[in-house]
Automatic annotation (TrEMBL):
Domain of life where this protein originates: Bacteria
HAMAP family associated with the record: HisG_Short
Keyword Acetylation tagged: no
EC category: transferase
Species annotation: Rugamonas brunnea
Alphabetical list of InterPro entries matching this protein: ATP_PRibTrfase_cat, ATP_PRibTrfase_CS, ATP_PRibTrfase_HisG, ATP_PRibTrfase_HisG_short
Key words, A-Z: Amino-acid biosynthesis, ATP-binding, Cytoplasm, Glycosyltransferase, Histidine biosynthesis, Nucleotide-binding, Transferase
UniProt entry tagged with the keyword ATP-binding: yes
Protein name: ATP phosphoribosyltransferase
Pathway: Amino-acid biosynthesis; L-histidine biosynthesis; L-histidine from 5-phospho-alpha-D-ribose 1-diphosphate: step 1/9
Comment block on domains: Lacks the C-terminal regulatory region which is replaced by HisZ.
Lineage, uppermost ranks: Bacteria, Pseudomonadati, Pseudomonadota, Betaproteobacteria, Burkholderiales
Amino acid sequence: MSAFNGQSNSQLILALSKGRIFEDTLPLLEAAGITVTENPETSRKLILNTNDPNVRVIIVRATDVPTYVQHGAADFGVAGKDVLLEHGGEGLYQPIDLNIATCRMSVAVKNGFDYETAVRQGARLRVATKFVQTAREHFAAKGVHVDLIKLYGSMELAPLVGLSDAIVDVVSTGNTLRANDLVEVEAIMPISSRLIVNQAALKLKRERLQPIIEAFERASQPKSQ
Ligand code: AMP
């Protein structure tokens, strides 16, 4: 069978990032009858097959998932709220919170730094973060003047070497902060991952996508009834 004889609307591409989002999405896919037959941790392949010849999974950086879906290179994907807020959500339909990869976005400082006083006195805070939009909105809402320093990783290092007074980062157990003598001084928002769907694909491939969205929705609800 050729992909050129009207089959293309039944082909689906799902964008996922390696690690926690991939692992936590597998049971949701299983609930939709889809089994990923290759492991991204042991394979270098970026396009993974599933038991359904019409469904393939692409493995991309977490921050790139919304971009692939927005442009229709993937029909749907799973992305953290942290990533979606930075992306802006343009061209994306966000039908469900999957309640996976949960953590929180927080402000942290070096142990001993008097954050409350610095904020109260209106000092200009230097804040290092990968989450520039979220940080900007958070401090603007509080009326705190900040100089934002964009980093791409290892934010925890910034206050330790004097690059910044504070960081805005995602925190799960808090172990990374503790290991680096940092303290969480403010929780900004809870974070979890959402299903995102390309808006055009939702219309053109509704028949294929809708049952998967519904299976994800059922499987991601808290199991108390
Ligand atoms: P933890 O030491 O458990 O607080 O984890 C902190 C680090 O793990 C953070 O700096 C993040 O890079 C990463 N992390 C933990 N949970 C998540 C998540 N749900 N989404 C993205 N990154 C996470």
